[in-house]
Amino acid sequence: MYVRVTSALTAATLLTLVSYAQAQSIPSEGELHVTYTTTAVPAPKPMEIGDGKQFMQVNLIMTASNDQGNPILNKMAGRCQLTRLIDGKTVETHGYCTYTDADNNQIFEQCDFLPGQPNNCKLTGGTGKFTGLQASIVITTQPIKSSFDDVFQGIGHKDGTYKIVKTN
C-alpha cells in the first residue's frame, strides 16, 4: 500500500513539473519591453560624399534585457551593422542586428530610422526557440557619457508587440 501511494505521489509531482516546464515556454504572442545598451566600436567617422552629405558605417555592440523576463531579447548579446546618410540636419539610418542567447539561439532585427519618423525596427526571425519570431518595435536611445574619448555609448528601450509564427 505504501509503495502505491508513493508511486502515485511521484507521478503527480512529475506531471506538475512537466506542466510547469511547458508554462515557462515562450508565449506565442505578447508585448515586448526591452532595455538595451549600445557601444559603437570603433568610433564611427563620417566620410564626405559631396553636396554637403556624409556617409558613415556604424558597428554597434549591444546587450539586451527583457523587462518582463520573457526569453525574447533577454540576457542576449548583439551586434548591429548600420549605414547612415547625413544630409545637413537630417539623418537616415538602415541596418541589421543579430542577438545571441546563452544557448546560441539567435534573433534577427532589421531597422530603418527615417527623418521625422519614430525609430522603427522589426524582429524578422531567429533560430532554435526563436524560429518564426516576428515583431514590430519602436526604439528610443539616450546617449550616456562615455569614460572613453570618442566612443559613443547609449542606453535605450525597445517597445512593441511580437508573435511567433510556426510553419509546417
Strand and helix map with partners:
Layout: H1 2-23, E1 29-40, E2 47-50, E3 53-66, E4 76-87, E5 90-100, E6 106-113, E7 119-126, E8 133-144, E9 153-164
Antiparallel strand pairs: 1-3, 1-9, 2-3, 3-4, 4-5, 5-6, 6-7, 7-8, 8-9
Structure commentary:
The chain contains 1 helix and 9 strands; from the N terminus they run H-E-E-E-E-E-E-E-E-E. It has a single domain (28-164), classed as AOC barrel-like (Beta Barrel). It has an 8-stranded antiparallel barrel. The protein is 13% helix and 55% strand. It has one helix spanning 2-23, and strands spanning 29-40, 47-50, 53-66, 76-87, 90-100, 106-113, 119-126, 133-144, 153-164. It has 168 residues and is mainly beta.
- Strand order within the widest sheet? 1-3-4-5-6-7-8-9
The percent range for helix content is 10-25%
- CATH architecture, please? Beta Barrel
Beta-strand percent range? over 45%
How many discrete structural domains? 1
Query: Which fold name is given in CATH as the topology?
Result: AOC barrel-like
List the uncertain runs. Answer: 5-24
Overall mean pLDDT stands at 86
Could you give a short description of this structure?
The chain is mainly beta and 168 residues long.
